[in-house]
Design a protein that fits this description.
Elements lengths: L3 H26 L72 H28 L7 H42 L5
């Protein structure tokens, strides 16, 4: 088991990883907001199940506007936006995953927030367990003397156990040397 400072550093590292992952999730998976009076910029919702080998749509659309061919000019103004055919996977231009449904996104936000709060509480517990502000120098010195005395006792017991082990090994060696193989 690591010492308290190492545990604290690991907990802070985990907190930073959780924060980064939360911000990245919010940035990449947020649902699009609707602004009154403006056309929606949201891509069409992704199908519930698509085969991974399904081809991507051949045209890119910008919300309600006309479809834009990757290698050519815009279609005529009257052309409706192209929706993905059933079984086709929706890809966004920047390669990011499609937005989450609002209910799934909110549930994930609550879970991420709970994880962040639990990690912060663990950090606080580790900080409170550190010696320092609550302990005076005199009490810390007396605790160190107690621990040194305990360490000396344990060291004496270890030395006695080591001597006993050496005696047992010698006795076992003599025993094995005195025995012969029986055929």
């Amino acid at each position: 088991m690591a010492d308290r400072l190492t545990q604290l550093q690991d907990a802070i590292d985990n907190q930073l990883i959780l924060m980064y992952a939360s911000i990245n999730y919010i940035k990449t998976r947020h649902p699009y907001g609707e602004i009154l009076g403006q056309p929606s910029q949201a891509p069409p919702p992704a199908p519930l199940s698509t085969p991974p080998h399904a081809p991507a749509s051949q045209s890119l659309t910008n919300g309600d506007g006309p479809a834009i061919e990757p290698n050519g000019p815009a279609h005529a103004a009257a052309a409706p936006p192209l929706a993905p055919a059933p079984g086709q996977q929706v890809e966004q231009r920047d390669g990011s995953p499609p937005p989450e449904r609002p209910d799934a996104f909110n549930a994930a936000l609550h879970e991420l927030a709970r994880d962040l709060v639990l990690q912060e509480q663990q950090i606080e517990l580790l900080i409170n367990s550190l010696p320092g502000l609550g302990n005076r120098e005199v009490s810390q010195e007396s605790r160190m003397r107690e621990l040194e005395a305990e360490l000396r006792k344990v060291e004496v017991a270890r030395a006695e156990a080591e001597a006993e082990r050496e005696k047992m090994v010698d006795a076992l060696g003599e025993l094995l040397a005195g025995t012969r193989r029986v055929h």
